[in-house]
């Protein structure tokens, strides 16, 4: 059974907010090596998001994933038509417009009416090229072979699908709209499934991770083995009492499987609600995709613990808090059967 509806709504909001906090924390150091991060931010690295805490394209696309999924859900409820992959593809194409022009067109509605989203945050070429195509790709008919991390970083909203299997399938297919390499889309499905198990089903973190690994093993042994290494390294960390988290053993985080494995490893080492800030710092301070790994970590911990885990002073400087809170809450309301304003997604 799902968690109590009110708790799910809180976790839905916290999932998107936590991901945005991690994104903003890691963004200033995402292209720096560890030595350069220490040079610029001190021996412990970056410790808190800048003010204002600006998100990257990862959070922008997460918002458009959520908006697209909710539009598909509302259409399904009102007309019986259910095609979330196509609707999310169209939502991503609307995001692409925000990267090409300076402001909304007169009469724009929905997310594309929000001037704050008309800001280019150095989106990846893989996403830009994929979304410029005439038709949406799929795992069965990919347009490229990329397994980059920008596929997995936006699939958290799929975790609020009605069932675990639907969450996994949609996560895979949403990621495959831009990333055709097996690891690029399987990691998207794995992440969506993990969010579903934590936020909606209320599973403990280790049980949820084990279930994800078992499901992913049927699709991609490489991604499953990468996640299993994250678990093994976390067990070693606890057993040997290491002072710092060594995420570099799992890679740089530039690919989907590596980024998700780093996030899972960090959460298993820092699973408590009070450890949110420490977990995000561990996920951001390494040589690699710091914004992606910290964003995924924030999504997971938000889904696990709710808004009480989020540092208030960090939230105070975060942009788009209202959108993240509303869309995260509405995702949760859709899966728990609570009322929300359907006209926003008509």
From TrEMBL:
Matches recorded under InterPro entries: ADP-ribosylglycohydrolase, Ribosyl_crysJ1, Ribosyl_crysJ1_sf
Keywords: Hydrolase
Region called Disordered, residue ranges: 132-151
Annotated Gene3D superfamilies: ADP-ribosylation/Crystallin J1
Residue spans crossing the bilayer: none
Family recorded in the similarity comment: Belongs to the ADP-ribosylglycohydrolase family.
Name under which the protein is recorded: ADP-ribosylglycohydrolase family protein
Protein's organism: Saccharothrix lopnurensis
